[in-house]
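Q: Okay, next protein. This is biotin--[biotin carboxyl-carrier protein] ligase from Actinacidiphila epipremni. I've checked the sequence twice, so it should be correct. Can you predict the 3D structure?
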Amino acid sequence: MTPSRWSDLDRPPLNEAALRRAVVGSPLWTSLDVVQDTGSTNSDLAARAAGGAAEGAVLVAEQQTAGRGRLDRRWSAPPRSGLFFSVLLRPGEPGTYGGPVPVHRWGWLPLLAGVATATALSRIAGVDTALKWPNDLLVTVDGAERKAGGILAERTGEAGVVVGIGINVTLREAELPVPTAASLALAGAAVTDRDPLLRAVLRSLAEWYDSWRAAGGDPADSRLQQTYAAGCATLGRQVRAELPGGRELSGTAVAVDGDGRLVIAGPEGEQPVGAGDVVHLRPAG
Ligand SMILES: Nc1ncnc2c1ncn2[C@@H]1O[C@H](COP(=O)(O)OP(=O)(O)OP(=O)(O)O)[C@@H](O)[C@H]1O
Ligand SMILES: O=C(O)CCCC[C@@H]1SC[C@@H]2NC(=O)N[C@@H]21
């Protein structure tokens, strides 16, 4: 058997038809497509959004050749080794519960996606994840916190946001793109079959998005803020932020505010920083 046949056995394809049956028509999700190979699902879905795609479109790739992370970083992983997908949300359009969500609240969307993913992974795979603000999913492997997933939220048009989620599922140590990365398998996940993992994450995402919208985007009203704070590895830690203009801010991360910004308590008092700023976590201890 050739190596590629081995990896086929190891990493079966997603079952697009079954995923579609399970997901489309359930609350929020209006379409689901699996593509074999593309640059970035975030870029592709943004193009579809510009063409008028409805809220709730889901685009999944078996392989990405130009996966993107926050702050212009790359996201790379071997074909079928994880879940690489994007969803289209339209918080700027009126919804079931009334008017659009005010734009200043949209900073919560990547954090919401982190909470939804962490909740689902804990429930279905028994993996405990911590959230590194704003949107890294950390797992603990041999006592060290390592990144098993990331979220990239990008505005599209006036009313839309594409939320991209990357989760390392079956990557082995030798395949990790950076030594600080990890996978669910390395963290001892009980489930590494990507179909049920994806279904669980999408179900959880729909539930959290629904309650956030029902609360008009106020994270305090929808349990989101307290759930995020409880699962956030950044809070209580020493951080260093690089702000626009080359300024630096060091202090303790004390809260995440109503707009999703990290509040840092430093020598000059408390200051919120946004997801566009670079925040480094100082090692624990
Ligand atoms: N599959 C992947 N899994 C984890 N990280 C990945 C993956 N692909 C690319 N990366 C990139 O590797 C880097 C590692 O993430 P990590 O959070 O450790 O670094 P960082 O954000 O630069 O750290 P810090 O902000 O604490 O200085 C990130 O830039 C991330 O985008
Ligand atoms: O770590 C980060 O900064 C975010 C990584 C986000 C990766 C996902 S994979 C699916 C979607 N498409 C992309 O190009 N990026 C996101």
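A: Here is a summary of the prediction. Residues 238-281 form a domain with the SH3 type barrels. fold (CATH 2.30.30). The longest helix spans residues 194-214.
Q: Noted. On to the next one.
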